[in-house]
Amino acid sequence: MEDVGAGVVLVNSVAVVLIAIVCLIVIARRRGSHSKLPPGWSGWPLLGETLSFLKPSPATSMGNFMELRMSRFGKIFSSNLLGAQAIVSADPELNRFVLQNEMKLFESYWPQHIWKLFGDRNNLGIQTGVDAHKRFRSIVVGAFVTTSRLQTSFLGDADEAAGRLISSWKDGSVVSVVDAAKKFLFDVMVKNALGMETGDAETEKLRSEFKKFCCGITTIPINFPGSPYSISLKAKENIRRIIFSVLGEHMRAGENAERGRSDFIEWLVKNSSLSQEQICELIQGIVFASEDTTSRAIPLAIYFLSICPKAIQQLREEHLHVVGSETEDGPSKLTWDGYKQMVFTQCVINETLRLGNITKLLIKKATTNVEFKGYEIPRGCRVFTYISAGHMDPSLFEDPPVFNPWRWLSNAGIVKTDKNFMAFGGGPRHCPGAELARLQMAAFLRHLVLNYDWWLAEDDEPVAAPLAQFPKGLPISIRSLTSSKH
C-alpha cells in the first residue's frame, strides 16, 4: 500500500511539473509572437490575474493589484484578465490616447453578461458600432439632457426631490446616505424619462426591480435560481414590462394626450424611429446610468465633507449667499443663474470625483494593431485604462490622497480645468450626462448643508469592488441647524 501511495504522489508531482512546463511554453510563445508587448506576467492558466484584479481595495487608492505591478513593471504592463490577454495602463498619456481614438483605433469592451443584462441593440453605454453610437448619443444629447431641459425640468425636479427627501429626515436620527441618494436620483430620473410620479404604486414597483437589477452588474455571472445574476436577469424583464406598459399608454394617447410637459418617452414616441424594444432598452440604460453612478458620487461627497469641516462651512456660506436661506414657504427655489454661481460647490464635486474614483478604469479593445511609446497593442487586445491613475499621481496633483477642493479654485474665482481629470471619461464617449450629474449633486448638497450638520454614525470607508461603494451604506447622524442654535 505504501508503494501505491508513493506512486500516486510521484505521478501527481510529474503531472504538476508537466502542466507548469506547458504553461511556460504557452506564455513564452505568446510573448514571442508579440515581442513589443509591455513587460508583465500572465498569472495562472485560464484565470490569469483575475482574482487579484477583482480583489476589493480602498476607492481612494490605486489598490494593491496596481501598486505592486506598477512598482515592478512600470505604468504600462501586460497581464491576463477576465480570460484574455490585456494591457493595463496607469499612464495618463496612453489613457487619453485610447479615449480620444475610440471608434477609430479602439472600441468599448463589456463582458458578455453585461450585454445580456442591458441588451445589445441600442444601449448608449455599451454600443460598439460607430454609427449606432452616434445615432443614440444624438438622441440623448439632443432630446433628453438638453440645456433647456437642464435649466427647467431637471433643475426644478432635482431641487424639489432633494428638498422633499431631506426635509423628511428626523432631527437626531441616523440616515443611510446611499439609500437616500438612490431614492433621490431614481425619483428625478423616472419622472423625466417616463413621467412617473414619486409614491405611485408602479413607480415603487419599478424602484424595487431596479434595486434587484443593479445587484447583478458586478456579481459573478452564474445563472442559477436564486443567484444575484439570476435575480438581476429576472428584474430586467420586469423592468421592461413596466416600461412597455408606460410606452403603450403614450402610444394609445398619441396626439390627443393632454400633458403639462413632455417627458422623454413621449418625445421618443412622437419623434424617433426607434422600435418599442429599442426605446425600452434606451430608457433602462439611461435610468441606470444616472441612478447607479451619481448615487455613488453623492455619498462620497458627504463622506469627504464630514472629515473637512472647513469645506462644509464654505459650502454653506456659498449656498446662503447664492440662493438664500429658508423662507416662510420653505427653502428658496434653486435657479439656473444661482446654480451657475456655485463655484466652490463645483470644486467640491470635482475633488469628490477625483479622489473617490467611482469608476477606476474603462475597458477598451484594439480594433487594429497600435504602437505607443515603443510598445505594441495587438488587434483584439483589451486595454484596461486606469483613469484613476492620473487622479492619484503626485506629479499631477499635489498630495493626491488629501481631500482638497481648493485645488480646483483659480485666482480668478472660477473652477480650474485639467486634462488629467477624466472622471467623466473622454473622447467621443465623454459622458453626455456630466452636467446633469453635477446639477443633481449640487441640489442634494444644497439642501443638506442648509438644514443639517452631520457626522459619521459608523466607520464606513469607500471601497472599490470594482465600483466605489460603502459596505454599510454610509450611515450618518444628523442634527438640525435650527435646533443646534438653541
Descriptive notes:
The protein is an alpha+beta fold and 486 residues long. It has helices at residues 2-33, 50-54, 64-73, 92-100, 112-118, 130-144, 147-167, 177-194, 201-215, 228-253, 264-271, 276-306, 309-323, 336-340, 343-356, 387-391, 434-451, 481-484; strands at residues 57-58, 76-81, 84-89, 106-108, 174-176, 326-327, 330-331, 361-366, 370-372, 375-377, 382-386, 452-456, 463-464, 468-469, 475-480. It is globular and about 65 Å long.
List the helices and strands and how they pair.
Layout: H1 2-33, H2 50-54, E1 57-58, H3 64-73, E2 76-81, E3 84-89, H4 92-100, E4 106-108, H5 112-118, H6 130-144, H7 147-167, E5 174-176, H8 177-194, H9 201-215, H10 228-253, H11 264-271, H12 276-306, H13 309-323, E6 326-327, E7 330-331, H14 336-340, H15 343-356, E8 361-366, E9 370-372, E10 375-377, E11 382-386, H16 387-391, H17 434-451, E12 452-456, E13 463-464, E14 468-469, E15 475-480, H18 481-484
Parallel strand pairs: 3-11
Antiparallel strand pairs: 1-13, 2-3, 4-8, 5-15, 6-7, 8-11, 9-10, 12-15, 13-14
